[in-house]
Write a structure and sequence with these properties.
The chain has helices at 23-43, 51-72, 100-112, 117-148, 153-180, and strands spanning 79-81, 84-86, 91-92. It is mainly α and 186 residues long. It has one domain. A three-stranded antiparallel beta sheet has the order 1-2-3. A hairpin with a 2-residue loop joins strand 1 and strand 2.
Length: 186
């Protein structure tokens, strides 16, 4: 098979190449392996007080602080305390609320993709920022829903807005691919 419109080879270039030589399959295997490593690091049951636990706790506090600052733009009573945002509604930021699984998915997809190191670094950095901002927006929306429509909170928290974060991650990845494959001006 030849090159696709994106320039990626989607099948073997030579009939003698084995199935493990297909670039799309190699990408899928690399991305899956990276995802497994990132998820293992993220969800490993570290002992209390260990460096990874302290780092994750620090990150959860930062997400709460950023979310609290965003919420304060429309509710002056909102305040972050540790990993909790308090105000007219209270939200505790836990590991599943921090979108770290989406960050891991994006990083695995970008790092496994055939692009230059600089492009991959830019993709991980910019993509992480976009997903983090989308997550802060998600938390702010959940706060408003908790205040105004508490009966809708669970379905929005567990289904709708979780899906929105994953869709955002895929859109960021797709945009990054388009950026890496854009025509270069000489």
């Amino acid at each position: 098979m030849g090159a696709s419109a994106s320039g990626l080879v989607v099948g073997p270039r030579d009939p003698r190449e084995g199935r493990w030589q297909r670039p799309a399959l190699r990408y899928l295997l690399r991305a899956t392996a990276a995802m497994a490593v990132f998820y293992a690091i993220l969800y490993f049951p570290y002992p209390a007080g260990s460096l990874p636990v302290r780092a994750l706790s620090w990150y959860l506090r930062q997400v709460a602080a950023a979310s609290g600052a965003a919420i304060r733009l429309f509710d002056a009573t909102a305040q972050a305390r540790g990993d909790t945002v308090d105000g007219r509604f209270s939200l505790r930021i836990v590991l599943d609320c921090a979108a770290l699984d989406a960050h891991a998915l994006l990083a695995a997809a970008v790092l496994a993709f055939p692009a230059s190191r600089a492009q991959r670094a830019a993709g991980v950095l910019a993509g992480t920022l976009v997903v983090a901002l989308a997550n802060i927006l998600r938390i702010a929306i959940l706060y408003v829903v908790g205040v105004r429509w508490p009966a809708s909170f669970a379905v929005l928290h567990e289904d709708v807005l979780q899906l929105a974060i994953i869709l955002t991650t895929f859109l960021v990845f797709g945009g990054w691919i388009a950026w890496t494959r854009r025509p270069r001006v000489a």
